Amino acid sequence: IMLSGGDDRLWKTWGFPDGNILLTGEGHTDWISGCCFRPSGTQLVTSSGDTTVRIWDLSRRGCILTLRGHSRAVRACSWHSCGDFVASASMDGTSKVWDVNSERCRYTLRGHEESVNSIEFLPFSSTVLTSSADKTLSLWDVRTVSRL
């Protein structure tokens, strides 16, 4: 199964090798910039130009949580390997780590001078890697909200 999102504001899951569309989700009001399966495979996260991050339940085929807090488009999203946290990177120059269980922002990472374009958790750690339009990469310890 593959996951995609795009300018049509939809995310889609695709079955292979046939390439059939298995599920489609709608709800964002602008382009979808990123999408990622939860490690358990039961949910997914999307990021969008509408400044939101959304959690989707595949069995319910709908959005179960909308995370708001970025002031500009969200460029990327990523699940932590434990499945309890989501990270987002935004054109507002910040990244956020969201606690899915409490449904709130746990940490805001500030330090890039321009848009943050990608974000990834290092597996089984509290370290996040971000890349920015300011031509830098940063490693962050989200427990201390500091660059490494």
In angstroms, what separates the terminal alpha carbons? 35 Å
Strand order of the largest sheet: 4-5-6-7
The total count of helices amounts to 0
Mean pLDDT: 95
SSE pattern: EEEEEEEEEEEEEEE
CATH architecture term: 7 Propeller
Uncertain stretches = none
- Helix share of residues? under 10%
CATH superfamily: YVTN repeat-like/Quinoprotein amine dehydrogenase
How would you sum up the global shape? globular
Overview of this protein structure:
This protein has 148 residues and is mostly beta strands. The chain has one domain (2-147): YVTN repeat-like/Quinoprotein amine dehydrogenase (Methylamine Dehydrogenase, Chain H, 7 Propeller), CATH 2.130.10. The protein is 0% helix and 58% strand. A 4-stranded antiparallel beta sheet has the order 4-5-6-7, with no helix packed on it. A 4-stranded antiparallel beta sheet has the order 8-9-10-11, with no helix packed on it. Strands 12-13-14-15 form a 4-stranded antiparallel beta sheet, with no helix packed on it. Strand 9 and strand 10 (94-99) form a beta hairpin. The model has no long low-confidence stretch (mean pLDDT 95). Keywords: Repeat, WD repeat. This is SPG16 protein. WD repeats lie at residues 25-66, 67-108, 109-148.
